[in-house]
């Protein structure tokens, strides 16, 4: 009896703390205005995701676009928040901007002139951002043209307005390009005046928009005995498995390997002497973030174009790579993710530069000589940490296919949330947003969101602009 009383008291105290925290958040005028501004722009984005392209019959397009919710296209549709399958003006979403940003980020690492431009400060970054926008327009036009071809294939049986046929290609490319640029503008405004990273939030909102529908489909499927059946109990078990996978993703995102650092005594300002400090160099288990999965998905999407070929062999290859539950797809996909994880980590992580910075600031790793030996040591630790991180990242990437292949989940829309890019982005953005809210609270002497410890954020999708 005493146990239940104490448990009730603890639960009551937790509820009171939650209410108090919400009141503290709302009492901060700056934080309140940022939250309301962010919600307003997100609401505008969600409205646009339901506006159908000109020349499309909204009543007839649903049945024609049913195939866009299956296989690899289903993952793309989840990423776009359902706008892809609805032939919306935001069907391409923010993805062309992400592709352009990733390309420009790689160029700043590979091209010396771009590195020099990035080091010029605000003026250099403004030029790079401007070039990124121009590249976004070019990428959007190419992807919009491909999407028009896909729409022509899907709407042969209906779903188009006949009188609009002569203008359909031009208007669709223009509207899709304008829609992507508008979404990019929304993301930048959220970053400047709202809460969190705008581009990441837009992606997360698109992913979360499909979650209630996926839950209801799976619940109804289990309740009515569809698929493998199982009833409500199996659905509850699925939810607990999903929660466990989310916890695993949090560990993958926040996991670090700390390298001990010592700093020698320094004399500054005449005779003032500062004693040596002991700090740590954190090496992330997953330094590359979700970039390897995004790269892998882009590469795995290219062979699906063979499906439109007349060759039987090409069609077979396209069929394999359009089905994320295929074993060969999973093997190739995992290999590409692991390879890109090491490649991207090598591009963004420079042990030589870190070793030089430590040497300039009188810092050293205990038991390791400064200079090249320190760079070799950091590089060796990075390789050892990256390998399990890359394997875990590849496993998370193929989890939706494994879940669907094992019939653990009946509906693909629900299976897509059991891993992959969508889940990693969703978890990472939520952690990052909560960390920003907690920072605002602590700056004003309020308690944080947690009783102990601090919420750690994540790396943004790209270090340049996302």
Oligomer: single chain
Strand content: under 5%
CATH architecture of the largest domain: Orthogonal Bundle
Query: What radius of gyration results from the CA coordinates?
Result: 25 Å
Number of helices: 17
Principal-axis shape = globular
Read across the widest sheet, the strand sequence of neighbours is 4-1-5
The unreliable regions are 458-466
Helix content: 55-70%
Number of domains: 2
Describe how the helices and strands are arranged.
Layout lengths: L1 H26 L1 H20 L12 H4 L6 H9 L15 H16 L1 H7 L3 H33 L13 H26 L4 H26 L7 H24 L1 E8 L2 E3 L3 E3 L3 E7 L6 H11 L10 H10 L5 H22 L2 H10 L2 E2 L7 H34 L6 H4 L4 H24 L23
Antiparallel strand pairs: 1-4, 1-5, 2-3
Helix pairs in contact: 2-8, 2-9, 5-6, 5-7, 6-7, 7-8, 8-9, 9-10, 9-17, 10-17, 11-13, 13-15, 14-15
Which keywords apply here?
two-stranded antiparallel sheet, Preprotein translocase SecY subunit, 5 strands, disordered C terminus, 466 residues
Folded structure, characterized:
With 466 residues, the chain is mainly alpha-helical. The protein folds into 2 domains: 28-229 and 421-466, SecY subunit domain (Preprotein translocase SecY subunit), CATH 1.10.3370.10; 252-409, SecY subunit domain (Preprotein translocase SecY subunit, Orthogonal Bundle), CATH 1.10.3370.10. Helix content is 66%, strand content 5%. The protein contains 17 helices and 5 strands. The protein has a 3-stranded antiparallel β-sheet with strand order 4-1-5. A hairpin with a 3-residue loop joins strand 2 and strand 3. 34% of the residues are buried. Mean pLDDT is 77; it is low at 458-466.
């Amino acid at each position: 009896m005493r146990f239940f009383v104490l448990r009730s008291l603890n639960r009551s105290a937790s509820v009171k703390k939650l209410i108090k925290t919400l009141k503290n958040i709302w009492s901060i005028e700056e934080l309140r205005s940022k939250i309301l501004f962010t919600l307003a722009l997100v609401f505008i984005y969600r409205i646009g995701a339901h506006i159908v392209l000109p020349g499309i019959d909204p009543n007839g397009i649903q049945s024609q676009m049913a195939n866009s919710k299956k296989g690899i296209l289903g993952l793309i549709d989840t990423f776009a928040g359902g706008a892809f399958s609805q032939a919306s003006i935001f069907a391409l979403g923010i993805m062309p901007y992400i592709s352009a940003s990733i390309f420009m980020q790689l160029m700043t690492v590979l091209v010396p002139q771009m590195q020099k431009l990035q080091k010029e400060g605000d003026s250099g970054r403004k030029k790079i951002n401007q070039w990124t926008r121009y590249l976004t327009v070019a990428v959007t036009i190419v992807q919009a043209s491909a999407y028009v071809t896909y729409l022509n294939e899907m709407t042969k049986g209906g779903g188009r307005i006949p009188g609009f046929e002569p203008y359909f290609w031009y208007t669709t490319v223009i509207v899709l390009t304008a829609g992507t640029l508008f979404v990019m503008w929304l993301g930048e405004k959220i970053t400047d005046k709202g809460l969190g990273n705008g581009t990441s939030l837009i992606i997360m909102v698109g992913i979360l928009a499909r979650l209630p529908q996926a839950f209801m489909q799976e619940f109804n499927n289990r309740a009515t005995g569809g698929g493998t059946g199982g009833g409500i109990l199996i659905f509850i078990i699925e939810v607990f498995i999903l929660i466990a996978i989310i916890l695993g993703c949090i560990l993958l995102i926040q996991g670090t390997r700390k390298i001990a650092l010592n700093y020698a005594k320094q004399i500054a300002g005449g005779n003032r002497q500062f004693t040596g400090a002991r700090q740590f160099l954190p090496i992330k288990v997953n330094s590359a973030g979700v970039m390897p999965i995004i790269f892998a998905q882009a590469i795995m999407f290219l062979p699906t174009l063979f499906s439109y070929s007349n060759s039987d062999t090409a069609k077979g290859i396209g069929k394999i790579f359009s089905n994320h539950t295929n074993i060969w797809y999973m093997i190739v996909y995992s290999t590409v993710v692991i390879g890109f994880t090491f490649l991207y980590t090598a591009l963004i992580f420079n042990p030589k530069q870190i070793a030089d910075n430590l040497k300039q600031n009188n810092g050293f790793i205990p038991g390791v000589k400064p200079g090249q030996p320190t760079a070799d040591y950091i590089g060796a630790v990075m390789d050892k940490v990256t390998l399990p991180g890359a394997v875990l990242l590849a496993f998370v990437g193929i989890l939706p296919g494994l879940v669907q292949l094992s019939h653990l989940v009946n509906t693909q829309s629900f299976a897509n949330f059991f891993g992959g890019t969508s889940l990693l982005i969703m978890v990472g953005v939520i952690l990052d947003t909560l960390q920003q809210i907690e920072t605002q609270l602590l700056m004003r002497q309020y308690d944080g969101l947690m009783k102990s410890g601090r919420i750690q954020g994540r790396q943004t999708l790209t270090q340049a602009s996302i």
